[in-house]
Amino acid sequence: MLATTDPSLPQESPAALMATSSSDSSSEATDFIIQGVTSKGKAFRPSDWADRLCGIMSRFHPDAGSGYDRHLQYSPYVQPALIEGVRAVRVDARLHALEPMAYHFMRSFAKDNDLTVIEACVLPDRPR
């Protein structure tokens, strides 16, 4: 944030700016799918990127419990998928309510790696 020298302009603290952007972005939170294909049609590497990314996000669960085996389960809000033969990650918008920074990390990951993002409603898995 650049400091302004004009005293007539309002000055906001970084904390106030973050609170504003977080509350504004909550209305924008939507389910989405990150596909392992770049905008140029190339497969994203490494081939297990979706599993790795979901493993990193495994600590974000709706229950506040922090069981010793939490890292052994994927978060219900960030799940690996195989869609039409392409590795993908399904991201549930409820992740934003639990941890906005994690939700924005997922959006940024897709953008930074030039991956295809599909805005979609994430449906629950069918019972087996």
The CATH architecture can be named as 2-Layer Sandwich
Overall geometry: globular
Strand content: 15-25%
Strand ordering within the main sheet: 2-3-1-4
Order of helices and strands: HEHEEHHE
Which keywords apply here?
single chain, 128 residues, alpha+beta, Alpha-Beta Plaits, four-stranded antiparallel sheet, disordered N terminus
Mind explaining what this structure looks like?
The protein has 128 residues and is α+β, with helices and mostly antiparallel strands. The protein has a single domain, classed as Alpha-Beta Plaits, CATH 3.30.70. The protein contains 4 helices and 4 strands; from the N terminus they run αβαββααβ. The chain has helices at 14-26, 49-56, 94-98, 100-112, and strands at 32-38, 78-83, 86-91, 115-119. A 4-stranded antiparallel sheet has the order 2-3-1-4. Strand 2 (78-83) and strand 3 form a beta hairpin.
Set down the secondary structure blueprint.
Layout: H1 14-26, E1 32-38, H2 49-56, E2 78-83, E3 86-91, H3 94-98, H4 100-112, E4 115-119
Antiparallel strand pairs: 1-3, 1-4, 2-3
